[in-house]
């Protein structure tokens, strides 16, 4: 499945900084960033648009089969298309976040997205972030990182992000919401959120994104580098 170029898997709970770290790291290495949470969010958006309950396994699985999802590189990170429509902003709405872990728990949904994720990863030279990348999607990834941070810090970061986007959210609500999502993600039967045995744990509490990226790059060069990355790292 893998080519000559390496792959990096970044997993961790909500708000640990996975996507930001993955985006910067990919840029520095000349790799492509694939945010797998976006795929689960797209399906959730479609489930909500069709008025389907996220717990209805067979109806949700049908949505997964019919949805045409594309990930395209944009000037400000990747854009996500659903049946040709750019839904990159819509999938970040708090309503989608509230339902996404319910959609992501279904085996058929995960099976469908597993195939898509492996197709996207096949050329190599990618940084893929999610919950089960190191354990299930890319168990052969050359580097696996498990990012964590305290729930309080993760809630503060997510609150800031949501307020910047114009959402009126309280710290308490955001903390409750990410805790609920973490529980569902960690306790589901299929591909639960957990660190791969060979993942490098990185606690981002009290660190800014660039510091975390530096830490990972230092780890990489100490480990002898990666195949296929650009030299400007
Ligand atoms: O960015 P944030 O941490 O809020 O979450 P995300 O990466 O956008 O993922 C949204 C949700 O999708 C997660 O809470 C999981 O329920 C699900 N997900 C998953 O099950 N497996 C993945 N590989 C990625 C996301």
Secondary structure layout:
Layout: E1 7-11, H1 18-29, E2 32-35, H2 36-49, H3 57-66, E3 69-74, E4 77-82, E5 85-86, H4 94-103, H5 107-121, E6 126-130, H6 133-137, E7 143-148, H7 151-164, H8 171-187, E8 200-203, H9 209-222
Parallel strand pairs: 1-6, 1-7, 2-6, 7-8
Antiparallel strand pairs: 3-4, 4-5
Describe what this molecule looks like in 3D.
The protein has 233 residues and is of the alpha/beta class. It has a single domain (7-221), classed as P-loop containing nucleotide triphosphate hydrolases (Rossmann fold, 3-Layer(aba) Sandwich). The protein is built from nine helices and eight strands. The strands form two sheets. A five-stranded parallel beta sheet has the order 2-6-1-7-8. Strand 4 (77-82) and strand 5 form a beta hairpin. Helix 3 (57-66) runs parallel beside helix 5 and helix 7 (151-164) crosses helix 8. The longest helix has 17 residues, at 171-187. The two termini are 26 Å apart. The model has no long low-confidence stretch (mean pLDDT 93). It binds cytidine-5'-diphosphate. Cytidine-5'-diphosphate binds at residues 14-15, 19, 36-37, 40-41, 100-101, 104, 130-133, 181, 185. Residues 14-15, 19, 36-37, 40-41, 100-101, 104, 130-133, 181, 185 line the site of cytidine-5'-diphosphate (CDP).
């Amino acid at each position: 499945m893998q080519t000559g170029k390496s792959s990096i898997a970044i997993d961790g709970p909500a708000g640990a900084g996975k996507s930001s770290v993955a985006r910067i790291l990919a840029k520095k290495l000349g790799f492509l960033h694939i945010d797998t949470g976006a795929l689960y969010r797209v399906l959730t958006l479609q489930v909500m648009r069709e008025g389907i309950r996220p717990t209805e396994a067979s109806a949700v699985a049908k949505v997964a089969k019919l949805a045409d999802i594309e990930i395209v590189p944009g000037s400000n990170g990747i854009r996500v298309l659903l049946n040709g429509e750019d839904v990159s902003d819509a999938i970040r709405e708090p309503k989608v976040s509230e339902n996404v872990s319910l959609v992501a728990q279904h085996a058929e949904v995960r099976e469908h997205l597993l195939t898509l994720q492996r197709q996207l990863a096949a050329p190599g030279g990618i940084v893929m972030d999610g919950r089960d990348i190191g354990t299930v999607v890319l168990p052969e990834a050359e580097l696996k990182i498990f990012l964590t941070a305290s729930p309080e810090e993760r809630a503060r970061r997510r609150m800031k992000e949501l307020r910047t986007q114009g959402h009126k959210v309280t710290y308490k609500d955001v903390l409750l919401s990410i805790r609920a999502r973490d529980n569902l993600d960690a306790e589901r039967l299929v591909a639960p959120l957990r660190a791969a045995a060979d993942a490098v744990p990185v606690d981002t509490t009290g660190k800014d994104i660039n510091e975390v990226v530096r830490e990972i790059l230092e780890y990489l060069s100490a480990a002898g580098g990666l195949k296929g990355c650009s030299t400007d790292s």
